[in-house]
Amino acid sequence: MTLYRKLILVALILTFAVVSLGAYVRLSDAGLGCPDWPGCYGKLTPHHAADAINAEFAQSPHGPVSHAKAWKEMVHRYFAGVLGLLVLAIAVTAWQKRRETNGPPGLPALLLGLIVFQALLGMWTVTQMLKPLVVTAHLLGGMATLSLLLWLWLRERAQTRHAYFARVDHMRGSVTVALILVVVQIVLGGWVSTNYAALACTDYPLCQGVWMPPMDFEHGFTLHRELGETAAGDLLPLTALTAIHWVHRAMALIVTLYVGWLAIRLLRTPGFAFFGMAVGGLLSLQVTLGISNVLFSLPLAIAVAHNAGAALLLASVVWLNYRVHGA
């Protein structure tokens, strides 16, 4: 394995860790553990910022700042910083070795631009006080980074189509639709998480005891607003949170039916059983984790696993699309 491929693989693994850590930080309410950026109260570590953290904690013991939350936030930033350096190294190497790689350096350059934008979103997440649109965009940027790195790694493996792979040109439309549906569901899931709407419905399969509870779609899906508020600055009503949760749940049914059907189809296609098992297995895991979040009142471990499972499901569908479209 060349150094270039090793860099891509390490960056890919680290991206998954960063996405999972980001979910952990968000779900443990540590997103404002250090209310400035890129340091913590202007310091490199929470240890060096101990006096400022103690003063803030003494003033507001139940607020967003504590030593534990500060360390969670900064560890996530450290990991993201290392990832940024890795992507920079990948982009530079791709340019220097552009005659030796399996494709032009455009994709690594795109990744570098995305990482820079991700850093800005990370800063705005803090300075904009966890505004849902910014936090959701930051989550999607992490998922996009994971997908592009996976595509780049697959491209550099330079594997030709094996004889035991059936021709599946007729499935190109199907796998593309599956990718679109998974991405839309991740967007909706991110909107649920960043608006803290996961427990707007505490029962399953009903929501608040009925199939169609009162819902406020207008306020729920207004993008430009502060966390927990309407665009006018009023308290976001429960009906808006219910609408956010219910739409994510309804979309989950559509994704389950379509991607489940595709997984069965893949199992019956020579050479694609692995993809059928991977996509079907991860889909089943995601459904189980999603229902468990509701029934067990959003345990932190299950909620983080649900975010990590979304990343893995997305990766499996991206890999499938590469095999059908790019190989």
Tell me what the structure shows.
The chain has 327 residues and is mostly helical. It has two domains: 158 residues, no CATH class; 167 residues, no CATH class. The protein contains ten helices and no strands. Helix 1 runs antiparallel to helix 5 and helix 9 runs antiparallel to helix 10. The radius of gyration is 21 Å and the shape is globular. About 2% of the residues have low confidence.
Outline the fold blueprint.
Blueprint lengths: L2 H25 L22 H10 L7 H30 L9 H22 L4 H26 L14 H23 L22 H4 L17 H30 L5 H23 L4 H27 L1
The tally of domains stands at 2
Q: How much is the average pLDDT?
A: 95
| Rg from Cα | 21 Å
Helical content stands at 55-70%
Report how far apart the termini are.
19 Å
Q: How many helices?
A: 10
Number of strands: 0
Q: What is the percentage of strand-forming residues?
A: under 5%
Which class do the helix and strand fractions yield? mainly alpha
Largest sheet: none
Spatial shape: globular
| N to C succession of SSEs | HHHHHHHHHH
The residue ranges in which pLDDT falls below 50 over 5 or more consecutive positions are 160-164
What keywords describe this structure?
mainly alpha, 67% helix, 10 helices, single chain, globular
